[in-house]
């Protein structure tokens, strides 16, 4: 019999069983991380750093740079102990926290950076080899080395890691040789570097040194091959940072006491002259470049494999997610990475793209910090890491990464950001769906909560705009209502599409399915809005209950948009519903369709029949202006029409109306019509027969509203589509119009 407790609470992904036979902490995380940290900068540029900023300045730079790396490691440890980190390392962590779009936007540049890093390191190795053996061909050495490290990685990750043990031995031998070596010349310890004539600024030197401590991702990228990532990633990363920091704090003392500042600046291989066995330094340089190349060629294919399996890459590249052997090794991805690296090596100089590679790595670190910080700040119940870090440390790490990026190279930082944003937008347009959630919704919820609590319950003319609720029924049959509402919101107001299903036993699944169908319908037509489907025994009472209860705090629909109904059997219920909306303080806009089938014709002419600025008149002016400035009604002409009894009244009305239009700056035109012996109905039908939309005010509902509404419907018979406007909100629309600059786009 199955365990009922286990059925209710299945084992979550975050506590999945360790991968049997995987790599451990030392081989899988510590070794690749420390070998990437102790790289070519330590051998070829560390003397230059000490010479320029002196002993004290170097110790400050090392501490500051390592602090940023340490803060990132804290964030990595927090995420790694909250979830089972599978193949993909940093990409996997980011995508499961901030979503597939953000993860992909970081993961694709991260893969490119790792692939090109292989070439960068093998070119460095080739240059050092050729400097000792000038007879060798630079490109052949570089390409041969690239093939060697790639084949090593394809054979097995464990074999590559074992090869790194020999490299680590070479680096350790070079450091011991340096420690037991001697001084190059007599020197005094320079605390703040050489003379002004030969010294670079502190931040320039910091920018050169910082990439030396950015090797912690080499171990994280091996997450899919680790036996226990939640244990190995934090421990291995912290051990590597601590070891690297200790070495980087001791080396400046040795360098500063064995050579003067100018010698340290001018001789990149000054360590070879200081060492007990000088060639051991060459072994260390070669080992550092090879180990970094191996770390990159192990990490890059695994990121590529994860991107393909998650569907981030286009469908025709899904085969790149294939794994081989019991350890699921990404041999196809390794081969592709080798090809990319070989092309880059063949092209030669990578100095131009090297800063951008560093930017991609630092972008990854910054986003990892942001992921952990946001997760912790939101305090989501689902985020329960064993290694707890206060959100401020993670945010500080993210800001530190951002600052360092601009200090290193502002242009490269900008290019990296543009590339990442472009990928993010591309992935967002694909509307990818994932089986896991992300913190995006939680972040928006936090912002919404803050905004709602700060919104005043009192309406303000300066910030007023319509937040329509459309009673559309079946959206496909009354699309013109949604289209009209969208035109007056300009994608700034909050638009809600609502439907009332009649019946007492409508299942929840049917309502949810209809809501989903309406959302898809709106999405395909580029409409941004909320959807609400409810049920009631009576459609009219259900609509009233929906409008009365819908909203959150001060954020409620202020304008109800609905279609007209000429069915005399339901006119009384319809009018009661409209009167109810008015008593609730909602504006009501009723669209009476024309008899020609084309609801809005050509959308070129809007006739607004004027009755004064207060109430309905002011609201009509606002709606007309918003329509005229929308994309679908762009270029249309709004004419404010007013009927008077004689020419004397016409002159006064024309002057007043033109002055008002000029003051309100809506772009409308005035037309004063002398009625003579004609009735208003006759003037209306003659003057507005060619309009695409007519706008008219309605009287406030009273006990005779049914009869009044019936008379309006008779008046509108044979006219183009007419919008009937009933202002119900307690706000001065005249003041809103005087603040019309708020609607400028």
UniProtKB/TrEMBL annotation:
Keyword vocabulary terms for this entry: Membrane, Transmembrane, Transmembrane helix, Transport
Give me the segments passing through the membrane: 21-44, 56-81, 102-124, 136-156, 163-182, 202-224, 236-255, 275-300, 339-362, 393-426, 608-627
Q: Which residues form the signal peptide?
A: none
Q: One short Pfam family name for this protein? A: AA_permease
Tagged with keyword Heme: no
Keyword Cytoplasm listed: no
What GO cellular component term, any one, is given? membrane
Coarse class of the protein's main subcellular location: membrane
Give the Amino acid permease/ SLC12A domain ranges.
29-466
User: Where does the record say this protein resides?
Assistant: Membrane
Q: Which GO terms describe its molecular function?
A: chloride:monoatomic cation symporter activity
Which family does the similarity line name?
Belongs to the SLC12A transporter family.
Query: What name has this protein been given in UniProt?
Result: Na-K-Cl cotransporter
Tell me the organism's taxonomic lineage.
Answer: Bacteria, Pseudomonadati, Balneolota, Balneolia, Balneolales
């Amino acid at each position: 019999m199955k365990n009922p407790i286990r059925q209710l609470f299945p084992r979550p992904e975050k506590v999945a069983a360790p991968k049997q036979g995987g790599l451990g902490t030392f081989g899988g995380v510590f070794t690749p991380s420390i070998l990437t940290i102790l790289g070519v900068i330590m051998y070829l540029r560390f003397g230059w750093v000490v010479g320029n900023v002196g002993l004290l300045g170097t110790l400050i730079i090392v501490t500051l740079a390592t602090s940023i790396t340490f803060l990132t490691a804290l964030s990595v440890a927090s995420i790694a102990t909250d979830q089972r980190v599978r193949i993909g390392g940093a990409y996997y962590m980011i995508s499961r926290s901030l979503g597939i779009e953000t993860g992909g936007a970081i993961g694709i540049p991260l893969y490119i950076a790792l692939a090109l890093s292989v070439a960068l390191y093998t070119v460095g190795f080739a240059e050092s080899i050729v400097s000792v053996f000038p007879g060798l061909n630079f490109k052949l050495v570089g390409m041969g080395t690239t093939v060697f490290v790639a084949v090593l990685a394809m054979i097995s990750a464990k074999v590559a890691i074992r090869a790194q043990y020999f490299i680590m031995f070479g680096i350790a031998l070079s450091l011991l040789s340096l420690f037991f070596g001697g001084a190059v010349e007599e020197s005094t310890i320079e605390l703040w570097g050489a003379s002004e004539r030969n010294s670079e600024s502190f931040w320039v030197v910091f920018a050169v040194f910082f990439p030396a401590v950015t090797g912690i991702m080499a171990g994280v990228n091996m997450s899919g091959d680790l036996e226990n990532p939640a244990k190995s990633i934090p421990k291995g990363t912290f051990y590597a940072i601590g070891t690297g920091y200790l070495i980087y704090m001791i080396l400046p003392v040795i360098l500063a006491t064995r050579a003067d500042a100018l010698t340290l600046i001018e001789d990149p291989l000054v360590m070879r002259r200081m060492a007990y066995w000088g060639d051991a330094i060459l072994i260390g340089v070669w080992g550092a470049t090879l180990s970094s190349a191996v770390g990159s060629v192990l990490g890059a294919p695994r990121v590529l494999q994860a991107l393909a399996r998650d569907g981030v890459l286009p469908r025709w590249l899904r085969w790149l997610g294939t794994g081989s052997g019991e350890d699921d090794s990404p041999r196809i991805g390794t081969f592709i990475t080798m090809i990319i690296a070989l092309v880059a090596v063949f092209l030669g100089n990578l100095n131009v793209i090297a800063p951008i590679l560093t930017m991609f790595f630092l972008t990854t670190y910054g986003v990892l910090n942001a992921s952990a910080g946001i997760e912790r700040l939101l305090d989501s119940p689902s985020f329960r890491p064993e290694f707890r870090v206060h959100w401020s440390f993670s945010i500080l790490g993210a800001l530190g990464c951002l600052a360092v990026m601009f200090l290193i190279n502002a242009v490269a930082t900008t290019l990296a950001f543009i590339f990442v944003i472009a990928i993010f937008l591309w992935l967002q347009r694909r509307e990818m769906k994932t089986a896991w959630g992300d913190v995006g919704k939680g972040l928006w919820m936090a912002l919404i909560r803050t905004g709602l609590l700060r919104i005043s319950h009192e309406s303000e003319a300066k910030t007023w705009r319509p937040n329509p609720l459309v009673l559309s029924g079946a959206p496909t049959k009354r699309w013109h209502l949604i289209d009209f509402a969208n035109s007056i919101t300009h994608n700034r107001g909050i638009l809600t599409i609502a439907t009332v299903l009649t019946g007492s036993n409508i299942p929840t699944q049917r309502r949810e399915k209809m809501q989903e169908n309406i959302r898809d319908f709106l999405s395909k037509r580029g409409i941004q809005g909320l959807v609400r489907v409810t049920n009631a025994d009576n459609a009219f009472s259900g609509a009233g209950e929906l409008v009365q209860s819908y909203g959150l705090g001060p954020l409620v629909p202020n304008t109800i948009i609905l279609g007209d109904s000429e069915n005399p059997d339901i006119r009384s219920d319809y009018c009661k519903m409209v009167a109810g909306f008015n008593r609730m303080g909602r504006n009501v806009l009723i669209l009476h369709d024309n008899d020609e089938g084309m609801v809005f014709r050509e959308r070129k002419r809007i006739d607004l029949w004027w009755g004064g600025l207060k109430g309905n008149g002011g609201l009509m002016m606002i709606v007309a202006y918003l329509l005229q400035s929308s994309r679908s009604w762009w270029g249309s002409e709004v004419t404010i029409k007013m009927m008077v009894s004689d020419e004397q009244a016409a002159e006064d009305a024309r002057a007043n109306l033109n002055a008002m239009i000029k003051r309100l700056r809506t772009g409308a035109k005035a037309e004063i019509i002398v009625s003579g012996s004609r009735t208003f109905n006759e003037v209306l039908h003659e003057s507005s027969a060619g309009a695409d939309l007519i706008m008219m005010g309605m009287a406030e509902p009273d006990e005779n509203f049914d009869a009044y509404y019936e008379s309006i419907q008779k008046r509108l018979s044979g006219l183009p589509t007419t919008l009937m406007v009933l202002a119900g909100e307690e706000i001065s629309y005249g003041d809103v119009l005087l603040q019309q600059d708020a609607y400028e786009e």
